[in-house]
Specification:
The structure is a single chain. It contains 5 helices and 2 strands, in the order H-E-H-H-E-H-H. The chain is mainly alpha-helical. The protein is elongated, with a radius of gyration of 17 Å. Helix 3 runs antiparallel to helix 4 and helix 4 packs antiparallel against helix 5. The relative contact order is 0.20. A two-stranded antiparallel sheet has the order 1-2. The chain has one domain: Four Helix Bundle (Hemerythrin (Met), subunit A).
């Protein structure tokens, strides 16, 4: 198997993982809304979906267009970061349970989540997104995609985190929960 074929398989697996996230997210969003959930930040959500979908496409286009010669040490180390990012993402999903989804939905009255990765990071899922945004394209030396996605994602996350923090601030301190969601 060529490195380009292997990269295609890795990106396809990540795309399948994203589809699994969307199934979980849709189910969990319905759960939250059925319990009086209030959604914030609808305006940036389509941009987030477009950015994260474009990310997957862009790195494949770059890989096929540039056909970079990838040092094995780079490929393997970046693949390890991608796997670690996936593990962190699913740890966030498991920790938040029904509350996790890709939108910002606050369910009034729920106790705060302060376990799992939320003990150490305010927005641990975004740590996973940032790590993956750099590492996944670099598995095949797609530095242009890594750079462009990282910059665009930084602008998006600035908006996303502001929206989440404002939504959380609307809750009484004793009923705050963490809606930190994944992207695409």
């Amino acid at each position: 198997m060529t490195t380009l074929t292997a990269f295609l398989v890795v990106v396809a697996l990540v795309a399948l993982e994203r589809l699994a996230e969307m199934v979980v997210s849709t189910r969990n969003a319905a759960w939250s809304m059925a319990r009086g959930g209030v959604e914030s930040g609808r305006g940036h959500y389509p941009v987030m979906v477009l950015l994260h979908t474009g990310f997957l496409v862009a790195m494949l286009l770059e890989a096929f267009w540039r056909r970079p010669d990838v040092p094995p040490a780079l490929a393997w180390s970046m693949l390890a970061v991608v796997v670690a990012a996936q593990a962190l993402r699913w740890w966030c999903i498991a920790t938040l349970g029904h509350r996790w989804n890709t939108r910002v939905i606050i369910v009034p009255g729920l106790a705060p989540v302060r376990s799992g990765p939320y003990r150490w990071f305010r927005h641990p899922n975004y740590v996973a997104v940032v790590a993956e945004g750099v590492a996944l394209p670099l598995v095949h030396g797609c530095w242009i995609t890594a750079l462009l996605f990282t910059v665009a994602n930084a602008f998006l996350l600035r908006t996303r985190i502001r929206v989440e923090d404002e939504a959380l601030a609307s809750l009484p301190p004793d009923s705050e929960h963490r809606p930190d969601q994944a992207h695409a």
